[in-house]
Amino acid sequence: MSGDRDPGEATVLLSRLRAGDADAGRELLPVLYDELRQLAARQFRGQAAGHTLQPTVLVHEAFLRLVGKPAAAFQDKAHFFAVAATAMRQILVNHARAANADKRGGGSRPVALDHDIADVSGGPGVDVLALNDALEQLAKIDPRKHRVIELRFFAGLTVDEIAEAMGLSKTTIESEWRAARAWLNVALRD
């Protein structure tokens, strides 16, 4: 968040947005912009040079999707960022699919993952579409592990923040994180 902003300002604006105040959406972007930009940068880390979608565009497109939803009901800031991370991931997946459809011969581009996921894939990069497919499978098999992956990797939340957001113990989240990473390891190597 910007240095001179009240840390509770985002929570107040999210409550106003949930109550249907359209002005709250316009006020929310400047409050959360720096953190959304960092989230987008995480999503783009290691993208191949010449990627046609820029982090700033990703931030704005995701934000418009989020606040444009009728009765956007974000419980708190952590929930907002979790949903934002999911929206960003979906935008990147859609962009990758469109780029593959336009390219001669197709072929997905690998995306570098942060160290917590990179050890799962066996290397610094994994195909964004393969990761998305694996995560969709995991969501069907174990929604809680899927949510932990989303919050940890895509939203960049700490184990403590995830535990609070999900109403679970830190030990449970650590266990779910380890198990989800192991599952992804197998799914991405297949």
Description:
By secondary structure, this protein is mainly alpha-helical. It has one domain (9-189). The chain is built from 9 helices and 2 strands; from the N terminus they run ααααβαβαααα. The protein has helices spanning 9-18, 22-44, 55-67, 77-102, 115-121, 128-141, 143-154, 159-166, 170-189; strands at residues 110-112, 125-127. It has a two-stranded antiparallel ribbon. Helix 2 (22-44) crosses helix 4, helix 6 (128-141) packs antiparallel against helix 7 (143-154) and helix 8 (159-166) crosses helix 9 (170-189).
Give a brief description.
This protein is 70% helix and 3% strand.
Main attributes?
single chain; 190 residues; mainly alpha; two-stranded antiparallel ribbon; 2 strands; 70% helix; 3% strand
Element layout with pairings:
Blueprint: H1 9-18, H2 22-44, H3 55-67, H4 77-102, E1 110-112, H5 115-121, E2 125-127, H6 128-141, H7 143-154, H8 159-166, H9 170-189
Antiparallel strand pairs: 1-2
Uncertain stretches of 5 or more adjacent residues:
108-124
Strand content: under 5%
Mean pLDDT value:
76
Spatial ordering of strands, largest sheet: 1-2
What share of the residues lie within helices? over 70%
Radius of gyration: 17 Å
Major β-sheet, in short?
A: 2 strands, antiparallel
Number of helices: 9
How many domains in all? 1
Morphology: globular
Structural class computed from helices and strand pairing:
mainly alpha
Total count of strands = 2
Topology pattern, helix = H, strand = E: HHHHEHEHHHH
| First-to-last CA distance | 40 Å
